[in-house]
Amino acid sequence: MQTRRCGPGQPPWWPHNEPWPPRRRVHDGSVRRGHFFWRLAAVALAVLLLAACGVLALAWLAATGLGIGAVSPAGVAVLLVGGGTFAVVAAAFALSRVMRRVAMPLGAVMDAADRVAGGDYSVRVGEHGPPPIRALGRAFNTMTGRLEDHDRLRRDLMADVAHELRTPLTVMQGKLEGLLDGVYPRDDRQLEELLEETHVLSRLVEDLRTVALSESGALKLQKELTDLGGLARDVARALAGDAAAGDVTLEVDAAADLAPIAIDPVRIREVLTNLLSNALRHTPAGGSVAVRVAATPGGISVDVSDTGTGMTPDEVARAFDRFYKGPESRGSGLGLTIARGLVVAHGGEIRASSDTGSGTTISFTLRRDGDATHA
After folding, report:
1. Domain covering 153-216 in this structure, CATH number
2. Strand partners, 290
3. Contact at 8 Å (CB) between 174 and 166?
4. Residue 104 burial (10 A CB sphere; 0-12, 13-18, 19+)
5. Which tens digits make up the pLDDT trace of 293-340?
6. Angle separating helix axes 335-345 and 188-216, nearest 10 degrees
7. Omega before 105 within 30 of 0, i.e. cis
8. DSSP labels for 325-353?
9. Planar angle of CA 151, 154, 155, nearest 5 degrees
10. Model confidence over 115-166: pLDDT tens digits?
11. CA 1 to chain centre
12. Is it the case that residue 23 has pLDDT exceeding 60?
């Protein structure tokens, strides 16, 4: 039977092949960086001293070889001592400048990187030193700024999603509890209301999925040559019932000979549906919504205009933000965000213009890049 002996204070579970007490290990990143910079300074100082001594030796050899003047051994000693002293002072001065201009900014970036790794995205570093070091600090500050914005957007998105999902879930829970308790009759009308709430949830989840795919660049487009004017007329016909119910005139102005363009018709139909539905919701009875499809030098532009109450400059600036809704909006706040994501995924641009009391116009442009390939 093999026995094991433990040293003074050594626990019995301690591995026999490791010393006791354990050697102290340095885990502090700042201490390791301090050692690194001191070693770097020592190496740099040694290189500078060797270079200075080499220059002095070459100068002395050149002088004696060319016979410029006889140099006594005492003079050589004085020359070497004086030159060495001068080299040490010059090297120390140069090294201090290098440390101050290069090592200190680099150390600040390393310390800030540790804080970012710990989740502190508010840290910034000073942009000073040589041009490459300043560029490094500027790039680091830009990176941390974007990380901070993304972290804020992520938190806001989670809060907004929880808020939007809570409403239909609360309604469904109340209805189901009422049905089970006998408060509501178990008839088709109650079931239809529950089914409508499930449709709201389904649309919200699908909208969130579309937003996530478009913003991450993972949205796959199935492009084909499409008559954009005809597509706009199809969407207008599908929404004609909503327009008639709200006593709103819906018109489409598109040239019959408009050349087809390579787009994903399903996604652009979704864009048009969102824009027209939004315009119809914000247009009072007796108003009008107009869709204009026209050719541009590089593609096709689409304008959706309404005669609603319009938006303030602040509302225009935030119109495409996720879950942003105006005071009178009844939607989820994702319609314009989805439209923007789908248009940008096509390589196009979208913008909003409005004046309070005079209606709103949402315009987007699609380029013809790659039409020949898709044809």
Report:
1. 1.10.287
2. 251, 305
3. no
4. middle
5. 999 888 999 999 998 888 888 888 887 877 666 656 666 667 788 888
6. 40
7. no
8. --TT--S-S-HHHHHHHHHHHTT-EEEEE
9. 90
10. 887 778 888 888 877 787 788 888 888 888 888 887 777 777 677 677 667 7
11. 64
12. no
Where helices occur in the chain by DSSP H, the ranges are 29-66, 73-98, 104-117, 131-181, 188-216, 228-238, 240-245, 265-281, 313-317, 335-345, 371-374
Angle between helices 104-117 and 29-66 (to 10 degrees): 160
Distance CA 148, CA 153 (A): 9
Domain spanning 224-374: which superfamily?
Histidine kinase-like ATPase, C-terminal domain (3.30.565.10)
Longest Cα–Cα distance in the chain: 121
Domain residue spans of the chain: 29-120, 153-216, 224-374
Angle between helices 228-238 and 265-281 (to 10 degrees): 50
Q: What residue type is 89 in one-letter code?
A: V
Q: Residue 329: left if φ>0, alpha if ψ -120 to 50, beta else—which one? A: beta
Residues in the chain: 375
